[in-house]
Amino acid sequence: MVREQYVTTTQGSSMPRQVPDHVYKIGIYGWRKRCLYLFVLLLIVILVVNFALTIWILRVMWFNTEGMGLLQVQSDGVKLEEGESEFLFPVYAEAIHSREDTSLLVHSSENVSLNARNENGDVIGRIFVGPKEAQGHTQNLLINSHNDNMLFTADGDEAVIGPDKLRITGPEGALFQHSVEVPVLRSELFKDLRLESPTRSLSMDAPKGVHMKALAGNIEAASNMDIILKSSIGLLVLDAETVRMPSLPLSEGGVPGNAQGLYEVCVCPSGKLFLSKAGVTSTCSENQEC
To answer: So what's the pLDDT on residue 259?
Structure first.
């Protein structure tokens, strides 16, 4: 409380005149003062709690000058020295590498998805690994070996296998819905090679020839109907020590001298076969076409 006195003078008189005292109150009093102190105390408590929580988070997360615990922030990226990393949301990275002495393991309780996007944000490549299936979506699939040799490539038109050999170990073999082009088709050692078309025809075409060779066994061709061996220009050569036709039909005894419609098979010294009209005696020498 401040008490002030004012002295005034009246016109025509030099005697001062006493002015009534005026009292001014400066400051905050009463319930306002108590609320202000309570608010300041509350601010101090909040600051202390925030500071304590900050110190606790720094100690729990192992923040340091190099990074956060075992996670180090470097100029070329983020490096995790030991332990495992768990991501609750999508991770965007240019490259992910494992440590030099360990392998890279990506584990998820549901599925693992890897997406590649272009500058517009559109997905141009995708790999999806789920509990029941694995899918890949890309314009061109390329698999290389450790020395950068192409192992497998595929696009919308064809699939190419790079190695010299393709080995199929399934008990049912390989099923091709369309044509297949290979330079050599070979079975495993001591196992048979079978080419089978259950409901349609089987065709083997080559511009310079088709070779079938069995080094230690037989070659069998079985058909429900006819087996036709045809050569448009060249010869049909049966090169064997013995050629047998055990199931040829036998003709019935007819009238002697009646050979109409009958022919005999003649063999040239070179092995060529030709037909000659049958007679009472052999007519091969008369109709030689050797």
So the answer is: 60
Of 52, 48, 70, nearest to 61 by C-alpha is: 70
Longest dimension (CA), the chain: 188
As a three-state string, the secondary structure of the chain is: CEEECCEEECCCCCCEEECCCEEECCCCCCHHHHHHHHHHHHHHHHHHHHHHHHHHHHHHCCECCCEECCEEEECCEEEECCCCCCCCCCCCCCCCCCCCCCCCCCCCCCCEEEEEECCCCCEEEEEEECCCCEEEECCCEEEECCCCCEEEEECCCCEEECCCCCCCCCCCCCCCCCCCCCCCCCCCCCCCCCCCCCCCCCCCCCCCCCCCCCCCCCCCCCCCCCCCCCCCCCCCCCCCCCCCCCCCCCCCCCCCCCCCCCEEEEECCCCCEEEEECCCCCCCCCCCCC
The closest of 277, 204, 270, 266 to 235, measured between CA atoms, is 270
Residue 69: per-residue pLDDT: 65
Q: Note whether 61 and 68 are within 8 A (CB).
A: yes
Structure-token match 């109150």, residue found? 25
Pairing type for strands 22-24 and 112-117 reads unpaired
List the chain residues with pLDDT less than 70.
Answer: 1-27, 66-70, 81, 83, 248-260
CA 175 to chain centre: 21
- Pairing status of strand 150-154 against strand 141-144: antiparallel
